[in-house]
Amino acid sequence: MALISKIRKNSWIMVVMVALGLAGFILMSGTKNQGFLSSDRTTMAEIAGQKIDINEFNRLEQTVYGNSSGDPYARRNALWNYYMEKILVEDEAAEIGIGVGKEELLDLQFGTNLSPVITRNLQDPNTGQVDRNRLLQFKTAIENNTLDASIRPFWAYQEKDIVRERLKEKLVNMITKGLYVPTWQAEMMANEQNSKVDFLYTRIPFDVIPDGDVALSDQDYKAYLDEHASEFTQKEQVRRLEYVVFDVIPSAADTAAIYQQMVELTDAFRRSEDDSLFIQNDGGVLDGTYYKKSELASTIADTVFKVLPETVIGPYFDLDSYRSVKVLDRMVLPDSVRARHILIRADMTNQQEVQQAARTLDSLRVLINSGVQTFEELASQFGQDGSSAKGGDLGYAAPNQMVKSFNDLIFFEAKPDSLYIIGTQFGVHLVEVTGRKYLTNEEGVRLGYVSRPIIPSEETQRHMEQEAVTLATENNTLDDLHKALADRMDLSFETTGPLLRNAYSIPALGSGQSVRNIIRWAFGDDPSYTAPEVGDLCKDVFAIQQPDKFYTDKFVIAGLKNVQKPGPPSVAAVKNDIELAVLNKKKAEMIIEKLGTPGSVQEAASKYNVAVDTARGASFSGLIPEVGNEPKVVMNALKLDLNTTSAPIEGSSGVFVIMPTLKPAVSSAPNLQLIRRTASTTIRSQVQTRLVNFLKEKEGVEDLRAKFY
């Protein structure tokens, strides 16, 4: 009792202890779940309740693509689509109880019903078919647990991709089996396809009214947008950018300096005793091909056939470079060459295979040269292509009919009665030229080139960058920048189309890291910047370098033009996009008001002094010859009674007044089943493309990729 009494008197101690206990429990719980919290920080997406970790995603990217070249954002986008489709398809398949069994998976990988994934990944580039021998090697290695450790991650990914592809195929098949085109619909389509009409028409183009004579109100924009809301409705938030591009162009001083470099290089080229080594060291072009006059640039075509070999011509301007060319040799070219070969197939990326094939062919060459066996006998025994049945004979070939290395050997290098070993994409060949035909006796010339691209110097690049940086620093908003550049005729503002959060390209700027950085800034996804408001300029200038150039060729100042939330857009969000359409609609209203109710096509034409024309055989395709696609006009012509003048019709390219003059009777379609089958195929093919989008909306996707790249 005394203890209870003490506790009652000091109840605050109990409260504190309980509080401390709860705090400790929460802290301990948080510590235990630290991995989960950490996982949330690395979660790049959640699809149908399943989280994707950025580290896992990066590892798979390395497995699938390794160090391959190409746009990394395009690769990541392809991998993202794989992830999303895999999860959505597997989730739906599990829900309705379909799957891919072990035996089925084996058949898809190694059997007679190969998955499209296998036929794509293991296709022999020479035959276009799956390399069954290579496939068997993989199967054996997997069964014996001897598959190379570097290949295992890729094969595991490939298996998952095969399952994804097969499940998707099953889902698509289930849906398409329930789709069909009823007879009445096929008859209606046949009737539409066979309906034709001739009609008189006059077209009053929109530009008969000058733009300055048309005043557009916000209500005009809103009315147009209400009518075409579905065309502009977005499922995700989109943003538009307005930007100014500073093109980095070589200055006169840059061009003069590069020309002087080429003068010095050309002098050294003239003195060179080893042309191959000189060209190789300078990164020039030395081609074994002999070119005819018609195949050369007009700048040098005449000259190279007039000078002696070893003569150097240049420097001369060619496209965006200064070049010099050395005439290495001239010869009369055969019009066709007959050759024979013994081909031993080899994977040209496998050095061991190539060397083994070359050793075998060298042994065969010894046998032929010594007279022990003939070329024909050995070709029949060892050749691995269709020519082996003919003793290796390939017949006569015209120039460039063979792959380049083979063509150059037999046309330009090989001597009669000599045997040559050469590698091509098909394998390793033992080759002999057996005949040449000379009909035109046209000369060809072999050339070596050295060149220097005309590119802006680092000083020119820095100068342009500094100009852009100064403007970006001194102006805070797009309005400020517009005012600052009002008098600059050399610079103009460009506006992007609607950009999604994970976009990685802008048509006029290309793709790549800098373009991706612009888009991340616009959406407020780059932690280096404060999230922009509409009208804000980015304080940093973005340097753009095209993949085929080795210098920065553009500097970009970008601003946030507008933000369009999911759903129908506001007028402000799409005003620039619809301005021309709204302007033409307003002009159409003005033209129609002036036309009133014309008594004839000729009367309508006379009001605007335009011609009357005839459209013949117009159909549901909507095409009017000499005008273009005008479906609304043609539909009216098909519905209107013969010799009846229409009310003015607003078309795509102007206002039309028409009068049907001939409607041939529509005969019953003899190909009704074909029409029905074609229509069914068209409907079913749409399932393949729409399935994933449907599942995406059904299951839900939280896409956080922009946090990471």
Folded structure, characterized:
This protein has 709 residues and is α+β, with helices and mostly antiparallel strands. A hairpin with a 3-residue loop joins strand 21 and strand 22 (654-662).
Features:
single chain; 709 residues; alpha+beta; 7 domains; four-stranded antiparallel beta sheet; 46% helix; 19% strand; globular; disordered N terminus
Outline the fold blueprint:
Layout: H1 2-9, H2 11-32, H3 34-41, E1 43-47, E2 50-53, H4 54-65, H5 72-96, H6 102-110, H7 116-121, H8 132-143, H9 152-176, H10 183-194, E3 197-205, H11 218-227, H12 229-232, E4 238-247, H13 252-271, H14 275-282, E5 285-286, H15 298-301, E6 312-318, E7 321-332, E8 336-344, H16 351-369, H17 375-382, E9 393-397, H18 404-413, E10 420-424, E11 427-437, E12 443-453, H19 458-474, H20 478-484, E13 493-495, E14 505-506, E15 510-511, H21 513-523, E16 542-544, E17 554-564, H22 571-595, H23 601-608, E18 612-618, E19 623-624, E20 628-629, H24 631-639, E21 649-650, E22 654-662, H25 672-699, E23 701-703
Antiparallel strand pairs: 1-2, 1-23, 3-18, 3-22, 4-13, 4-17, 5-12, 6-7, 7-12, 8-9, 8-11, 10-11, 14-15, 16-17, 19-20, 21-22
